[in-house]
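Collaborator request log, item 7. Partner lab (contact: R.S.) asked for a structural prediction of Tetraacyldisaccharide 4'-kinase to inform their binding assays.
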Amino acid sequence: MQSWVNKLWYQSHPLRFALWPLALLFSAITSFRRQLFRLGIKKAVKLPVPVIIVGNITVGGSGKTPTVIYLIELLRKHGLKPGVISRGYGVEIDGVRAVLPADTADTVGDEPAMIVSRTQVPMVVGAKRVDAANKLLADFDVDIIISDDGLQHYQLARDIELVILDGERRFGNGMLLPAGPLREGPWRLQSVDHVIVNGGSALQGEVPMTLHPSAWLPVSTHHDASKTPSKDAPLVAMAGIGNPQRFFDTLSAQGYQLEQTQTFDDHSVYCESVLNELANGRILAMTEKDAVKCRDFAKDNWWYLAVDAKLSASFDQQLLAKIDRLVADK
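Returned to partner:
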């Protein structure tokens, strides 16, 4: 399904014109909703601590999760106590709930499970982000909130908006859903604080971001982490993320010879037998986001490559300066 959608949105498939009337309807509905908040008919809820939105205007992975992890570490170094809220995509959550390090992806969502596993940050997931934020403030000692996604969730007032853009795919065919990948038009970028471009070439005024491999780690928590994959060994790579090719390209750039690649839909649920058959005795390499969904049945020859986001010192300085002003005002 995802490969077909990618052809429609990113390869100028002619079917996009047949979906254009639905894109117009989507535009009308979302514009009306934004206008309700703009006129004050619907009220945005302001919180007593600064709120940073890390979102995008396109559907699919653009690098939000590595950016959230980067911000958590940056804010901690600056003496702040961040907490994170998220929708918990792909799981049914009754109300809101805190994410614990032992939680699995099928109970809280793959990205929240990955974020907490990596950082142990206080995190709450739920469909209503205002409720998630209030629980976060009530149950944890946090003084700044990062919303993982939620750029279009206007009920939650925000102090800083960061938009993450895939530098290779950018806006795709430039059309709104479902004809294209856009949730909102490129005009939306004019009102955000920073446009962070993951890979590709950042344009003037945009902030370049790169993802750097940090370590090979075993998917199984019981396996020896010292015996990392050899570049001479046959390697099978799999990825269930928004842009799987980026992961495969990263492995190739590291000097690994990919004997086979397999893409899955973003947020896929994995089956042990399917992955066993895919590996077929070879090393199976996957992303960190995939790994959190495979920990309970992982084999010793399954590994994931952790990556870290890298942004400029000038971005850090501008962001931290604005946060300092917000904290003083709050």
